[in-house]
């Protein structure tokens, strides 16, 4: 087992201390730092970005070739940490707890954690398991000055955590299954923009993920999480199908075909889509097609008719009607606005 201690004063120093143990090379571009590792200890990357409002994003996409136990000393840097496990699993234990008190975060589960100043906590990562984990770290005093203007709208428990600027309390919340955060993380991983635009897009998604953590905690504390009879495996089958749908957007899927392909009943499909996406199956497919169409209109040379048929619609008038209902602008107006924006940019 690889065991070491981290006693950093910020995210950057934390990653630097990890690098001393597992090796690798750190590069930086437009404020995005990447530790790349490919040796006998680990393979993959640890990325981080620090934002001016007191938050930072830490992304682990890595395989460790031995078990890793990191002892974290919170004397210098003690943020509220919002964890989400997209792939693999990891463990956490406060230093005052017995050895067998490790709490595991499994795939698609979230957690909110913070220690008291001077406290110690352990982070556990398994051997030979690919992990993909996001950690949003929030410095309370800075965040309160910049962003938490109406914190009283959080539930009392989480509000007290944010207001504990002297870091006197320990807090641990391990959330239930959440695929909505997984979808935002997947979208973040697909960002192709460079430079400042890339960082701004990532920052927007960090806000979105942070709000989803808070809303989930609020619902679970108040017992308002929607009840479901679906198993985690069945919810994952639905998410896997939505990935396939994005690649075959023009195909006319019927509810019967989707049920046969996923092995789920039509009732379970409807329940799962409503739970995960707040849409019926039909609504989800239609909205996904419209979003693909919007991107094609904005980023391709296709005319409106070509876009309509490429996403599986046969009626341009119907497409125009539902496009305007969703985006508040007609496809032609949207295309013209994008063309004008490009012309202005080119003439600048």
Q: What report would you give on this structure?
A:
- By secondary structure, the protein is of the alpha+beta class.
- It is 45% helix and 24% strand.
- It contains twelve helices and 13 strands.
- The protein has helices spanning 11-22, 140-146, 156-163, 179-189, 195-221, 232-247, 255-262, 266-277, 281-299, 304-310, 316-327, 331-347, and strands spanning 2-6, 25-29, 32-38, 42-50, 55-64, 68-73, 80-87, 90-94, 103-105, 109-114, 120-125, 131-138, 171-177.
- An eight-stranded antiparallel β-sheet has the order 2-3-4-5-12-7-10-13, with helices on both faces. The protein has a five-stranded mixed β-sheet with strand order 1-6-11-8-9, with helices on one face.
- The chain is globular.
- It starts with a strand and ends with a helix.
Secondary structure elements and pairings:
Blueprint (H helix, E strand, L loop, with lengths): L1 E5 L4 H12 L2 E5 L2 E7 L3 E9 L4 E10 L3 E6 L6 E8 L2 E5 L8 E3 L3 E6 L5 E6 L5 E8 L1 H7 L9 H8 L7 E7 L1 H11 L5 H27 L10 H16 L7 H8 L3 H12 L3 H19 L4 H7 L5 H12 L3 H17 L1
Parallel strand pairs: 1-6
Antiparallel strand pairs: 2-3, 3-4, 4-5, 5-12, 6-11, 7-10, 7-12, 8-9, 8-11, 10-13
Helix pairs in contact: 4-5
């Amino acid at each position: 087992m690889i065991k070491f201690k981290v006693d950093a004063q910020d995210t950057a120093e934390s990653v630097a201390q990890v690098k001393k143990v597992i090796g690798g090379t750190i590069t930086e571009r437009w404020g995005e730092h990447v530790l790349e590792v490919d040796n006998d200890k680990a393979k993959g990357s640890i990325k981080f970005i620090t934002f001016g409002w007191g938050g930072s994003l830490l992304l682990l996409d890595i395989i460790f070739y031995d078990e890793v136990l990191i002892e974290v000393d919170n004397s210098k840097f003690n943020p509220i940490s919002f964890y989400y496990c997209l792939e693999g699993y990891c463990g956490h234990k406060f230093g005052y707890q017995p050895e067998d008190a490790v709490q595991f975060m499994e795939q698609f589960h979230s957690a909110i954690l913070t220690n008291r100043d001077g406290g110690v906590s352990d982070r556990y990562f398994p051997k030979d398991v690919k992990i993909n984990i996001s950690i949003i770290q929030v410095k309370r005093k800075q965040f309160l000055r910049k962003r938490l203007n109406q914190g009283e709208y959080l539930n009392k428990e989480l509000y007290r955590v944010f207001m504990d600027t002297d870091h006197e309390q320990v807090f641990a919340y391990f959330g239930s299954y959440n695929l909505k955060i997984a979808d935002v993380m997947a979208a973040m991983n697909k960002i192709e923009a460079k430079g400042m635009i890339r960082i701004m897009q990532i920052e927007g998604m960090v806000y979105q993920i942070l709000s989803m953590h808070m809303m989930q905690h609020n619902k679970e504390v108040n017992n308002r999480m929607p009840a479901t009879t679906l198993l985690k495996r069945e919810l994952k089958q639905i998410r896997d199908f939505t990935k396939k749908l994005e690649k075959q957007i023009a195909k006319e899927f019927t509810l019967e075909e989707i049920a046969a392909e996923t092995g789920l009943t039509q009732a379970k499909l409807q329940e799962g889509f409503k739970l995960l996406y707040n849409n019926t199956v039909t609504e989800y497919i239609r909205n996904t097609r419209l979003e693909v169409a919007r991107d094609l209109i904005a980023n391709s040379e296709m005319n409106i008719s070509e876009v309509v048929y490429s996403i599986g619609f046969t009626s341009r008038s119907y497409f125009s009607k539902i496009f305007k209902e969703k985006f508040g602008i007609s496809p032609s107006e949207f295309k013209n606005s994008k063309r004008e924006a490009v012309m202005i940019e080119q003439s600048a």
